[in-house]
User: Which sequence fits this backbone?
């Protein structure tokens, strides 16, 4: 009970993480941060999303769509998923095949006390002894190099010049997964501490940007109206019930609307079992309630990110949907484009309700304060 009360009082949805915030977090923490501390429920953790243990709108394919069409930064996730599968396939090789691709050890870390001339001779000797062309998955590694690591590649990873040089040197020598050890920590840190929190923050919203703007401005206007009514009615010969009830009523919905807009959760839509659609969303993206109850995870995540099968396909249908979505005006965003909450991950729905209840509680607190002030204050009897 105390845990639920504590969550109700102090829960905050994940904050927007930018590049500078990520750098400061990376310097403060050596490993992946705790999900609970960042406002991400354990059931929506990075590991569960990657392992396809979540439902819409927090599936692995939703994560990919978010990075592709919102952040425009999907290369880290694409590389991370490829590397996970590459490790599995490489481990399945026989010992003889594995011996053709030795574990990579950076010569600068192997022995820092050796002169540079000795290191150069050692590297040259190693290059003669091993024939890279005969190593397992050489063509696949070369293709991934051209896709993610080479300068101006289609999905170029954001690497420093030193890290890029090191990984390219390693891959020219061996195809062992250890050759990527200078790249993987950066990719995983970016996904865990930036992309995933931003994705969960986005997935928890039920309102699009047009509705969010309308809620904020509408709530702000209602708050001003409530203040004006409180002052105006207090100066006149108005019954106390009207003098207290009307301003507090307007203030309650004004504060609630502002808070809902600030946290992108619409009370009206949630009460009606509706939500605004994502820009990239297709009709087939959301499952029915029975599939969520049965936790049919195979159907929950159907997009394949198998880079071994060839180049990454381009989803022309989603591109057309996004272009049409971006051309809509504010009125269209407000009146059209929502869909039912059927198929929503139960944890997402629970957090959305929690956020709405928090907003109602805060609005009620402001309303009670204003009501007490108006009740105690005497009538002006000026008109």
Assistant:
């Amino acid at each position: 009970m105390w845990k639920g009360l504590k969550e109700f009082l102090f829960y905050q949805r994940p904050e927007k993480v930018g590049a500078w915030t990520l750098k400061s977090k990376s310097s403060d923490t050596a490993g992946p941060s705790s999900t609970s501390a960042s406002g991400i429920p354990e059931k929506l953790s990075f590991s569960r999303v990657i392992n396809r243990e979540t439902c819409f709108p927090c599936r692995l394919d939703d994560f990919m769509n978010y990075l592709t069409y919102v952040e425009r930064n999907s290369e880290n996730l694409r590389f991370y998923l490829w590397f996970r599968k590459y490790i599995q396939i490489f481990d399945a090789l026989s010992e003889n095949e594995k011996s053709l691709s030795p574990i990579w050890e950076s010569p600068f870390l192997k022995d820092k006390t050796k002169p540079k001339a000795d290191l150069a001779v050692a590297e040259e000797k190693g290059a003669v002894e091993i024939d890279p062309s005969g190593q397992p998955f050489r063509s696949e590694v070369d293709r991934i190099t051209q896709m993610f690591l080479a300068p101006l590649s289609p999905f170029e990873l954001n690497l420093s010049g030193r890290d890029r040089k090191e990984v390219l040197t390693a891959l020219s020598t061996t195809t062992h997964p250890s050759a990527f050890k200078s790249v993987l920590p950066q990719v995983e840190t970016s996904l865990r501490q930036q992309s995933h929190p931003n994705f969960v923050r986005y997935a928890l919203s039920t309102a699009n940007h047009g509705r969010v703007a309308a809620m904020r401005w509408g709530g702000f206007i209602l708050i001003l109206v409530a203040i004006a009514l409180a002052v105006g009615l207090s100066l006149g010969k108005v019954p106390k019930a009207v003098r207290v009830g009307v301003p507090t009523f307007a203030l309650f919905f004004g504060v609630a609307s502002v808070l809902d807009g600030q946290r992108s959760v619409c009370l009206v839509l949630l009460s009606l079992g509706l939500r605004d659609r994502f820009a990239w969303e297709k009709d087939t993206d959301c499952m029915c309630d029975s599939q969520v109850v049965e936790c049919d995870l195979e159907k929950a995540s159907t997009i394949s990110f198998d880079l071994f099968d060839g180049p990454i396909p381009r989803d022309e249908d989603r591109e057309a949907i996004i272009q049409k979505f971006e051309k809509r005006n504010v009125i269209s965003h407000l009146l059209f484009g929502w869909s039912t909450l059927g198929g929503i991950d139960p944890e997402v729905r629970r957090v959305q309700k929690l956020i709405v209840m928090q907003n109602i509680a805060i609005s009620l607190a402001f309303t009670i304060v204003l009501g007490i002030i108006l009740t105690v204050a005497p009538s002006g009897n000026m008109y």
Strands lie at 274-276, 338-340. Residues 209-376 form one domain.
